[in-house]
Write a structure and sequence with these properties.
Number of domains: 2
CATH topology of the largest domain: Rossmann fold
CATH superfamily of the largest domain: Alpha/Beta hydrolase fold, catalytic domain
CATH class of the largest domain: Alpha Beta
Shape: globular
Helix content: 25-40%
Oligomer: single chain
Number of helices: 11
CATH architecture of the largest domain: 3-Layer(aba) Sandwich
Radius of gyration: 28 Å
Length: about 375
């Protein structure tokens, strides 16, 4: 027989019971909170993989593949136009929504910078799938210009972006296309044209076509990004275009892109190239004599005389080295700086356009 409990033990019973209840409730609440957190995470992660992104949306509109992505709080729209031998899908990483996307490093950085600044990004693939260039001619004869305004308006209306500013970015053939688009589409409030020879006729605002018939209007603020050191002929056309626009009262400016060393940091702009692999690629190029003392390419990487593919092949494995689809090829073109789309300065370019071209571009770089 157990001895009867003492008075002291009896007095502690209510206290111990309260402590026990508190501990049990604590475990229940913590378990409930953790369960809720796990349930929330389960919505984002399934089978150890992140839930698929709803972007980009991909659709054929007016016969042209159209892709777009909208940030949570959009403040504007950026139309991006690819160059020859490319397509709109270059601006997104491969995914279940876009298995054919190439995710080229400079194009993806353009998209990412724009999204971070609050811009919805819209890309369209050109009509000509042989040369993959844009049909840069008069509105009435251009398969692309006859479609682009209505495509952009449809996307903007669907996403509720009609009241936001629309800017246009393009490189090479795409750079010419956005210059022509701005002349016929009043909604375009600013242009960033890269590495393209500028035909003065593209800077004349249309009084027909898709101009809306609203009477005379100013050509929008325009920024030219070009590689003057290694492409002086295009630089001359930019100089002439700047004079034409400024004389007409349109804000206009230029950014000159110079050659740069091939560094591990530059190569890591690609999602395919790790820090370790980047170091091996740079070492292979140096050992093979492809780089000078400053670390810059000695031969145009697009040239058949360039040894870079032969030099890096042993270290890159099965990575594509094909021109216009290879991540590494694009980054070497950026380093050589003769003719390539570049993501550098986009942040400054958008700031300049947001200011209506009234700020000094040098102050924003």
């Amino acid at each position: 027989m157990q001895p009867p409990p003492s008075r002291r033990t009896s007095n502690l019973r209510p206290v111990l019971a309260a402590v026990a209840v508190t501990l049990v409730l604590g475990f229940i609440l913590r378990g409930s909170s953790r369960s809720a957190q796990q349930n929330a995470q389960a919505k984002e992660v399934k089978g150890g993989k992140a839930a698929p992104s709803p972007w980009p949306k991909v659709r054929i509109i007016r016969d042209l593949e159209t892709l777009w992505e909208v940030p949570q709080k959009p403040k504007g729209v950026l139309f991006v136009a690819h160059g020859c031998s490319h397509q709109g899908s270059d601006f997104w990483q491969p995914s279940a929504r876009c298995k054919h996307c190439l995710g080229l490093p400079e194009e993806c950085l353009v998209r990412e910078v724009a999204l971070q600044r609050g811009y919805a990004v819209v890309a369209v693939t050109s009509f000509n799938r042989d040369s993959k260039c844009w049909h840069n001619t008069q509105f009435k004869r251009s398969e692309d210009l006859q479609r682009l305004p209505s495509i952009l308006r449809e996307v903007m209306e669907e996403e509720g972006l009609q009241q936001l500013p629309l800017f246009a970015f393009g490189a090479s053939s795409g750079g010419s296309q956005v210059l022509r688009l701005a002349a016929i589409m009043p909604e375009v409030q600013g242009v960033i044209s890269q590495i393209t020879p500028v035909n003065p006729s593209t800077l004349a605002v249309a009084d027909d076509g898709d101009s809306g018939g609203g009477g005379p209007r100013m050509y929008p603020p325009t920024l030219f990004v070009h590689m003057a050191q290694r492409d002086p002929e295009k630089a001359e056309t930019v100089t002439a275009a700047l004079a034409i626009l400024k004389k007409a009262g349109t804000p206009a400016a230029e950014i000159k892109v110079s050659p740069r060393p091939v560094t591990a940091a530059l190569l890591q702009r690609s999602t395919q190239i790790s820090a370790q692999l980047a170091g091996k690629i740079v070492a292979a190029l140096k050992k093979g004599g492809a780089l000078d003392k400053k670390g810059q390419l000695q031969v145009e990487p697009r040239s058949s005389a360039s040894p870079w593919r032969r030099l890096v092949q042993p270290v890159v494995g099965n990575m594509s080295l094909a021109g216009d689809e290879s991540h590494l090829s694009e980054l070497l073109n950026v380093a050589y700086a003769r003719h390539e789309l570049v993501s550098d300065h986009l942040d400054a370019a958008l700031s300049w356009l947001e200011a209506g071209g009234k700020k000094s571009i040098e102050s924003l770089l």
